[in-house]
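Archive entry. Fields below.
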Amino acid sequence: MDGPLVKKYFLKLAPPSMEDSAADLERVIRSLSEVCPGEFDVPLSVASKIPDVLRQSGFELTVTVSFSDTRSIIDAEPGDTSGRCFGLAIDLGTTNVVGVLLDLAEGRQLGELSDVNPQIAHGEDILNRIHFCLKKGNLEELQRQAAGCINSIARRLSDAAGIGVHEIGCVSVSGNTTMAHLFLGLDPYNICRAPYVPVANHFGFFRAADLGLDINPEGAAYVLPNVGSYVGGDVLAGVLVSGMHERSEVSLMVDVGTNAEIVIGNRDWLLVCAGAAGPALEGGVVKFGMRAMPGAIERIKINPETMRSEYSVIGGQGVKPRGMCGSALIDLLAELFLKGLIDGRGKFVEPFLPGVRENDGLREYVVAPAADAEAGEDIVFTEADIDNLVRTKAAMYTALNVVTRELGMSFHDLAEFSIAGTFGAYIAADKAVAIGMVPDIELSKYSLLGNSSLKGACKTLLSREAINEVERIASMITYKELNVSTDFMSEFRAAMFLPHTDASLFPNIV
Amino acid sequence: MDGPLVKKYFLKLAPPSMEDSAADLERVIRSLSEVCPGEFDVPLSVASKIPDVLRQSGFELTVTVSFSDTRSIIDAEPGDTSGRCFGLAIDLGTTNVVGVLLDLAEGRQLGELSDVNPQIAHGEDILNRIHFCLKKGNLEELQRQAAGCINSIARRLSDAAGIGVHEIGCVSVSGNTTMAHLFLGLDPYNICRAPYVPVANHFGFFRAADLGLDINPEGAAYVLPNVGSYVGGDVLAGVLVSGMHERSEVSLMVDVGTNAEIVIGNRDWLLVCAGAAGPALEGGVVKFGMRAMPGAIERIKINPETMRSEYSVIGGQGVKPRGMCGSALIDLLAELFLKGLIDGRGKFVEPFLPGVRENDGLREYVVAPAADAEAGEDIVFTEADIDNLVRTKAAMYTALNVVTRELGMSFHDLAEFSIAGTFGAYIAADKAVAIGMVPDIELSKYSLLGNSSLKGACKTLLSREAINEVERIASMITYKELNVSTDFMSEFRAAMFLPHTDASLFPNIV
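PREDICTED_STRUCTURE:
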């Protein structure tokens, strides 16, 4: 029977007598076994408080059981606290750390919070942080920073929900391979050096206190496994959430971040490959690109009459835009193309339609005028931006195509096409199809997973079975190097057109 | 296949390549699984050193595996160190702590050392120490003292054997219920209060560092289980060593210390009861009684011509005696009776034979004259001493008789009669029979176990199967209160005669 990773049991014991002088701990386990059969570990810190707990409460107590590799009694409290059982799911991203506080007894979400990964002070990207670890003591510092960030999120979520942070009995952490290593204090040195071997792929369970996590010190900390250096627990979480590993039909999932990891397969086999694909969607490459956070335009339409943009901003009405996140960029590129402001090569059509202008010799579309923008300057989308975005979408489409074709399949054979990634929840599948980033298949086959790293972490807390599943996914998945052959390059060039040089591939668009 | 609790494996790995880019840890486990199948836990401290160990040694390394509840890799070292695998067995006595350093690869003993239990500063006996724990912080102090004493023994034994103390991969600790609780920091409060419940009976395995043990920090620390407040791991170790739990015939074991625990049974059932029986044998009750240590007379004969005593002293020739240990007291009482110096009531026969005298109105036998004794005063054995010893032997015989009879058996039905206890190795069974302490059965059925607490601890390190056995013994054994009925009292009185008022019970003596 499936259930959460940590569960509480309220027990009413018969007090000891000369006829029944079982030891305190055995008395508790005897009673617990009636409702939860099995063998139980009891850490000393819990064993040592049991005599007092029993005698404080007339031998009625609540025990917290963690179902990690072994069953452990990780807490004992007087009276009935069985309704108070909490877990913390963490998406440990390179840039952002997002946490969700879960009520495990009720199976519902109590709050969500995002914070900047403090490791960023020692390197914006993974390579910089790996380099930082060359100096003795620095790996330990990054470990403490990761734990500290999770602790801060845990504390704020607990405060907001009116619970004690020590009532959190388990944490599940999903991140890429390097983030998992840094969080566990494992040297990432060989992750970025041929032949690219991590220290470990399967991490499993840890005692929360051993990782510096300030929840129940005996609580279970689970870290999702990875598959080599390129495919992290965040991707496996995506597979878990997509459910593709359970279906008999073949599905595909693409997780778009700095890289685009593509997973294809079914319940019998899973293949994963990774390609540099997504940077233009993540901010920093496109002039006004930014992450999905308050102030980011997330949705754009172009008014067919005025050719002016209509947009919505994360944070709600009254929040002035600062830039555009990935979903807005895809919307915008699609709209510019579909409304005829740009041609298939991504160039502004002359004569310029309203909103398009030339500025200092560079052509651009004005998304939001200075008066409406937070920074008091026009938010624009330049031809150079368009070019970057087209490269990104072309790389992704090519990778998708190569992988599918190498398996002797066509996109139409796919039962489901899932898009994961932090902006994946907001992406409009029809727009992604329109620009030729993803194939022109039935829109109903598209499924937007959103932050599937975080959702997967939640799932592993709410369902013990999900942990077995994700470990099984990690064991069965095969990593395939994307063959950057001349074939790939010529296909890539063909894809650098809206939606594609071969229009027959996108019958619903052109 | 049985083997020691901790074992080392030398592994030669293929270095990673683009074709085989398994993670470091998985590479190690893959190779280990070929010689030792199963799943393995790897604590972070070990996982994090594996990348360096592998690359320091051309991917040849030795891993140390602990076979506790789960299989754990508790160390990784470059090169081949498989011959260096050590364990420490501890008899954690109320007064003395004795340790044996074992070479687990060779299955032999490297050294033995005894030390006074430093907890003695906070109470000579168990009740005083339990009382001491009432004050906050004191339990923790006793815990630290126990660990500190074990650490000191570990260090001295390691130094003497020329090994590093961190090369010790496991510790097994055998003691009475209170000593086990104090060592683990578990509150002993209810052990001495009705209905006498310990915090726990089964302790199992701990991480050495969690108990403050300064061996391999990830090493396995095993604590033998107890059965309620009166029957500790030391007694169960005795059963283990006796092998009575494996035989189809019924055997009996008596463990003589401050109490005498009697275990009777076979492979299908085991019964244990405890009676206050042994104090006169332990020193402190008999005027010149002392523990078995250098300076103690351990063996006494009375010359039938001169009626003078001939004795041997622990520590060898040239060591002057300071007193007599339990085995000597039994010898002496038997010899005085058999040589006709005392009668069946334990009174000196008049006229006094040589060696007997009256001193200040008290009658006594001179064991060693002042000139031969360490303290320069006569070592004597008084009529009061004899009386105490007769009470002790009578209590033990009565307890043995009551238990055996209540099971509908006679002593002659016993396949084996084992005597355990620190002085048990030196006791002469024929002398114990002569004074009527133990029954008059075939002498070949007697088996002297010596310090079976320590021997049992050794066994649990050398044989993983022995740990299952002792846990099984603890689970199957039933504690039986010795019924101090009028029956018992009248039998006790009848036994207060040498060898017994009913001479027919001792046909070979009288």
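CURATOR_NOTE: Chain B touches chain A at residues 16-18, 20-27, 41-42, 44, 47-48, 50-52, 69-70, 184-187, 189-190, 194-202, 204, 206, 210, 228-229 (CB under 8 Å).
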